[in-house]
Amino acid sequence: xxxxxxxxxxxxxxxxxxxxIGNTSTGAVDAGSLVGKPDTGVIVLSNLADALSVSRPDVxxxxxxxxxxxxxxxxxxxxxxxPVIGTTGFTPEQIVELDKICRDKGIGGLIAPxxxxxxxxxxxxxxxxxxxxxxxxxxxxHGDQKLDAPSGTSIKTAELISQARQELRQGNPxxxxxxxxxxxxxxxxxxxxxxxxxxVFAQQEVVFGAFGQTLKIRHDSFDRAGYMxxxxxxxxxxxxxxxxxxxxEHFLD
Amino acid sequence: xxxxxxxxxxxxxxxxxxxxIGNTSTGAVDAGSLVGKPDTGVIVLSNLADALSVSRPDVxxxxxxxxxxxxxxxxxxxxxxxPVIGTTGFTPEQIVELDKICRDKGIGGLIAPxxxxxxxxxxxxxxxxxxxxxxxxxxxxHGDQKLDAPSGTSIKTAELISQARQELRQGNPxxxxxxxxxxxxxxxxxxxxxxxxxxVFAQQEVVFGAFGQTLKIRHDSFDRAGYMxxxxxxxxxxxxxxxxxxxxEHFLD
Amino acid sequence: xxxxxxxxxxxxxxxxxxxxIGNTSTGAVDAGSLVGKPDTGVIVLSNLADALSVSRPDVxxxxxxxxxxxxxxxxxxxxxxxPVIGTTGFTPEQIVELDKICRDKGIGGLIAPxxxxxxxxxxxxxxxxxxxxxxxxxxxxHGDQKLDAPSGTSIKTAELISQARQELRQGNPxxxxxxxxxxxxxxxxxxxxxxxxxxVFAQQEVVFGAFGQTLKIRHDSFDRAGYMxxxxxxxxxxxxxxxxxxxxEHFLD
Amino acid sequence: xxxxxxxxxxxxxxxxxxxxIGNTSTGAVDAGSLVGKPDTGVIVLSNLADALSVSRPDVxxxxxxxxxxxxxxxxxxxxxxxPVIGTTGFTPEQIVELDKICRDKGIGGLIAPxxxxxxxxxxxxxxxxxxxxxxxxxxxxHGDQKLDAPSGTSIKTAELISQARQELRQGNPxxxxxxxxxxxxxxxxxxxxxxxxxxVFAQQEVVFGAFGQTLKIRHDSFDRAGYMxxxxxxxxxxxxxxxxxxxxEHFLD
Lengths: 253, 253, 253, 253
Hints:
The structure is a homotetramer. Chain A is α/β, with parallel strands linked by helices.
């Protein structure tokens, strides 16, 4: 993901790459060459604080992992740099604490488990439709090596649907599974189905059924790079925000 | 459609059938028997004014045709009956005039080319998505005997998308049609495709494409009866409305 | 289903309706009037043997239930009438026995759990594709009041896929279900997912995944009447067959 | 495509890379380093005849362009090397001529416009289904910068459907296009629709409609690399073939 961010920044004339953090064990590398582009003069560094101290950027983009993300965010804020963080795993207490630091510094920050505008719209529309169509099932598709089922996005979608729709336990109460698990995973009255196949990156379809009709909302993601328009939007919007925002959906109106 | 309405009203304990208008040339028929239900005591009549005068209903539901709909609406209003009209073809001037009569009488009315909640949500979501995903095409499917292409619903959807998105002429400017018409019908920078096949009632898919992802919103309608939940909602909501409303979407929040 | 058959026969000038069996407790009814058509002169009878004895048809179409189908088939054969049977529940021994009777009489018969040409092609193509694409999952959709999951058709499809493909246990061996059942029902190394929603009649999608691509075969059935072209084909083909055929797929080349 | 082939060969222990042809203007490059793999000892050369003369391979894979493919194929055959060619543009006369050379040399060759097993199955199944379901339309999706519409694959599919189905001019004879082109491109009685959107690589859906049902066959290709399993199969099968084969479908049974 880091490479995709570097590429996206280099390709947008409104943005400027001033530093890049990565593994430097193989010697000095120019950030441009890492992504198949001409040299940029920005040498990849290993220490975040040093890099921020020297380059003084407006924004830090971090796609590391839950363990590194909290200290990285604190380091960024210590240097007055706005963090745009693409990992999960922050506790509500941590977010409150980071929000306080942001406000003290008078700057903004964003923590977003999902930067895909398409996925966020899919979730939003699903919640809206659930108000009128309480009968719903979710089918999500991922690569066949994914470990967890159902996906985080499908559980988040299910949560939003649950909040929006009238309470309902769907299906025939006397339904019987001839093969165990055929009816999928149960979530608050409805079902989530997880398909795992090679050739698939990340897809989800939310199907609503009512007398004589079905309504389907489907998002197909073919590539990590699909997140970049969202990261780009976030980098620009974060400049006019104060406080720590949780969830990229707040940057869409 | 008239029969579907009769059936729906008879099946809802909150509603009461007090009159039915239809072809009476084959003799007296009970409205119940027309729809395979027990007799209701409501005999189908041929003259609307007579029927309204005798039965004094709260609401008239009309699924006739553009030519009859205007006089029928005027007759209903003359008797203080709220019209719920499922035909197209009203001019803006006629709607203004009917709105005035409604307000004079202190009652409400609805003219709705489409009562399908699913179709209306599809249009609404498409307009919302077009703001973020300006690249879009519409594919609509109807039975193979349909005369016009593209469908009224797809043109309405295209209109709403056009209003919501940034101006954009999609596609390669040097694109060439090896077979004329392959790229579909042109509407304000994007394309509409009309598929006509037996076995299909009415379906539409709106496809948005962006780097690395697609977002699809699809509505499949299998049956006229799919409109009935919308008509049912309209009959109930119309009681607390004043003025003539155009478009069922105004009855959804 | 019986009514659909009557309708189909009346609408095909190559076929002639000579008898109809049904519930006669409400008095004499013409078979035409049962299906909203003009009178045919064929009065619905309650006793199959009597009806066959009087009308001497070429073919009997039976869409009753597993319990009645066996005696009805025997009765038909006793009168030299070719049975076209649309129910399940025959044992292999019964089929062998019926085949023997057919051959003794020099006539043909058909027992077919599924008359949908589309469903049969879907199964056939799925088995063919499984040879090249061993990674597969089945998603089937039925109305929300259906009792059993997965559907008979999906199990039959799974069987055919299993026979055609190389042995393979799909997915990550360390996969974990966060919500039990999310990964669907297990069948010989792959998964079947059963969606149950109002507005759906019977749909099935077989999805094959391989590096960089997916192949999907989908059959959507909107209506019982979709089986009638298959029944029509069967009635005509049965005239030139000897012996009892099991499965409508043998009538497609 | 050349790089994908190099990668695929290096990853299959049954195959051995012995030469690679490419642009050498930037100095000597190891074929492994071109595809992000360790050095292989195979230096990319610019002259095909020299490379074949030195390395004496069993098979040449060529994904160049219509202009270079014919001389390259002739050069390969002159050295007794089996050509596997992934370009279009050969005339029937050229293929006859190449077949003769192959037979004289006692070796095999393959010219294949499409190496995607999924696409070939889609075409095959479509032709099979058209026999039973004569009502059909094709919808194909490609990236928004593609120049020609409809795609070569959709035209090839249309051809195969035409040969298989009974003659039929679909649709209402009085059909009217409110927006010109909405009904798509006309091909022998049916229609092809070309959708062009960013985020799409190559997708095609063939939809058959009949009373009460639809059957859909869909192939989604996300990546050039999806062709490689087909190229791999071809390299292995070509060793036991004599003569020039046109079309990869002949290598699938």
